[in-house]
UniProtKB/TrEMBL annotation:
The gene is flgI. Keywords: Bacterial flagellum, Cell projection, Cilium, Flagellum, Periplasm, Signal. It comes from Pararhodobacter oceanensis. Residues 1-20 form the signal peptide. This is Flagellar P-ring protein. It is found in: Bacterial flagellum basal body.
Length: 366
């Protein structure tokens, strides 16, 4: 019953998505309009005894000494072992067209043996791009992703206390040199390469302007001629086409998550007529040791006699059953539901049907 309900919900959801009209900005990436990854190495202070152990994380002591020396405090040769600091990696993304002084969200993650970043403050940390240049500087109070509490004999952890975020915690100090207005053409890169979708995008753009301004290069690229759009700049042209709606094409695909037992099918999935039989073996071993006591007032010892009951049970499973070929997703779901098995067994059945060549879809196992 659970599997039937789940597959029915998946059918409704995936069918609705496949038939939906999607905005162009949600289907493609505009050439040059992209973010840049940033990374930095810093120190979180103000922790309540949950920071790094200096002996296990010597790099924490090094960065702490460097920061103090930059502030005019000489700690050369000193032994200090605070538990209220933690070395962290700070990551973020410099958004496209970010200007000097704008704010960027960052994520802070402990790299030592700190127990929690709850209540900590990130000290000024430069963030570098892939070219080694500093593009932003991060600092601020860390919002921890979880919390941990510990007693003498028990401990409870909720979420991930060794990772957190600082909304708007980095300030942009260097801009990425890119002039959108200088482009004579803009490439639209599809997030999911598909010839049908690329053709529909070309037709939608040309239909909007009433002339040939877009041309499909391949399944993942559509080129827009800015001059042919007769707009003031590339930015004006993109603003006119980014909200155009297109019905994207999709490949037949079955996605299986083995960890949670989740199965999701696309609308285009088809199954040829096939017969399925499924069963299983259960190995059962029971230990019931028997203690034999000596007679009263005797010099004997208590003896434990092992007693083991081992058996192999042959689960009935399902007998040979026919799954009729489905021409629609509804028929495929109805045929699989007719087997009457749980999600875990259904994953094995789908794998076997695919191996037999009867599943006409991409099978992705995560």
């Amino acid at each position: 019953m659970i599997l039937r309900l789940f597959l029915t919900c998946a059918l409704v959801l995936v069918t609705s998505l496949a038939q939906a009209q999607v905005r162009l900005k949600d289907l493609v990436e505009f050439d040059g309009v992209r973010g840049n990854d940033l990374i930095g190495y810093g120190l979180v202070v103000g922790l309540d005894g949950t920071g790094d152990g200096i002996r296990n994380a010597p790099f924490t002591e090094d960065i702490m000494a460097n920061i103090l020396e930059r502030l005019g405090v000489n700690v050369t040769g000193e032994q200090f072992r605070p538990r209220n600091v933690a070395a962290v990696l700070v990551t973020g993304t410099l958004p496209p067209f970010a200007r000097t002084g704008s704010r960027v969200d960052v994520t802070v993650s402990a790299i030592g043996d700190a127990d929690s970043l709850f209540g900590g403050t990130l000290v000024m940390t430069p963030l570098n791009g892939a070219d080694g240049q500093i593009y932003a500087v991060a600092q601020g109070s860390v919002i921890a992703g979880g919390v941990a509490a510990r007693g003498e004999a028990a401990e409870v952890v909720h979420g991930v206390p060794t990772s957190g975020s600082i909304p708007g915690g980095a300030r942009v100090e260097r801009e990425v040199e890119f002039t959108l207005a200088s482009l004579s053409q803009v490439r639209l890169a599809l997030r999911q390469a598909d010839f049908t979708t690329a053709l529909r995008i070309e037709q939608a753009v040309n239909g909007h302007f009433g002339r040939a301004v877009a041309a499909m290069q391949d399944s993942g690229t559509v080129v827009v001629d800015i001059a042919a759009t007769r707009t003031a700049s590339a930015a004006h042209a993109l603003s006119r086409i980014e909200n155009l709606v297109v019905a994207p094409g999709s490949r037949a695909r079955v996605v299986i998550d083995q960890r949670s037992g989740t199965i999701v099918m696309g609308e285009e999935v088809r199954i040829s007529r096939v017969a399925v039989a499924q069963g299983g073996l259960t190995l059962r071993v029971e230990e019931t040791p028997l203690a034999v006591q000596p007679n009263p007032f005797s010099a004997g010892e208590t003896i434990v006699v092992p007693r083991t009951d081992a058996a192999i049970d042959n689960d009935p499973g399902i007998s040979l059953a026919e799954v009729r070929g489905g021409t629609t997703l509804a028929e495929v779901v109805a045929g699989l539901n007719a087997l009457g098995v749980g999600p875990r067994d259904m994953i094995d059945i789908l794998n076997t049907i695919n191996a037999a060549g009867a599943l006409h879809a991409d099978l992705l196992v995560r």
